[in-house]
Amino acid sequence: YGAPNTGKAGILIPGVGCQNSCRFCSTSHKFEHKYTGFLKTGMDIFEVCQKSEIKLGVLDFGVMDENFCKDPERARQLLEEMEKHGKAYSFSIFSSAEAILSLGTDFLQRLGVNFIWIGVESKANLFEKTKGIDLHKLINDLQKRGISVLASSILFLEHHDKKTIHEDIEWAIGLESDLSQFME
After folding, report:
1. What is the distance between the alpha carbons of residues 104 and 107, in angstroms, rounded to a whole number?
2. Quick one: 2 exposed, middle or buried, by C-beta within 10 A (0-12, 13-18, 19+)?
3. Using only C-alpha atoms, what is the Rg of the chain?
């Protein structure tokens, strides 16, 4: 887009699949509604980050994991290792609202999360991962901590008709995330 790319970034794949198993999610179906971890502990992830820094000069990582925060103990271990070794890595992650709340927005800031993709899906709150959560407040809390947010919505759900689909679009835009994604 014309902006200079001054840094290096790497991709981490801590695991595949997601235990939330949203009915529209192809990844959940591909991996039989289970999560299979490759980097099972925070120490495993930290070691890969360290090796990437030493060999490639990488400090920024895109984390390809459907719901990184779903394993809060692994995330806590990763932060513990980073603090113990005086390392500051940054991460772009995918995570569900309920998993984010289990760790807290302050924790994610300390971990070095600078971007987060959240499946907000629909104002109808059809999925456990968003039930009872004030998504507008959550997104605002993340943004106040310098974390950019992509809010992803699903269109053409069972309840959508000409009226409700437009209501969901307006609701998603009203969340005031940095980016909005609409999936069919």
Report:
1. 5
2. exposed
3. 17
- Res. 168: pLDDT tops 70: yes
pLDDT of residue 8: 87
Whole-angstrom Cα distance, residue 9 to residue 90? 9
Report the alpha-carbon angle 25-121-99, nearest 5. Answer: 80
From 30-34, 66-70, 104-108, 130-134, the region with the lowest mean pLDDT: 30-34
Within 10 A of 22 (CB to CB), how many other CB atoms are there? Answer: 19
Structure confidence by residue, pLDDT tens digits, 137-154:
999 999 999 999 999 999
Neighbours of 176 (CB within 10 A): 13
Q: Are 157 and 120 in contact (CB under 8 A)?
A: no
The two structure tokens encoding residue 138: 């959550």
The residues, ordered by sequence, that sit 6+ positions from 116 with a Cβ below 8 Å of its Cβ are 92, 93, 94, 95, 100, 108, 142, 147, 148, 149, 150
